[in-house]
Amino acid sequence: MKTIKAKAMTAAWSFFRLGFFQSFSVALKASWRILKIQSGKPTDITFIKTDTGEIRNAKALQVGTLSTMVEGYVRYMEEINGLFQWRSFRIANLVIN
Question: Is the pLDDT of residue 40 over 90?
Answer without folding.
Answer: no
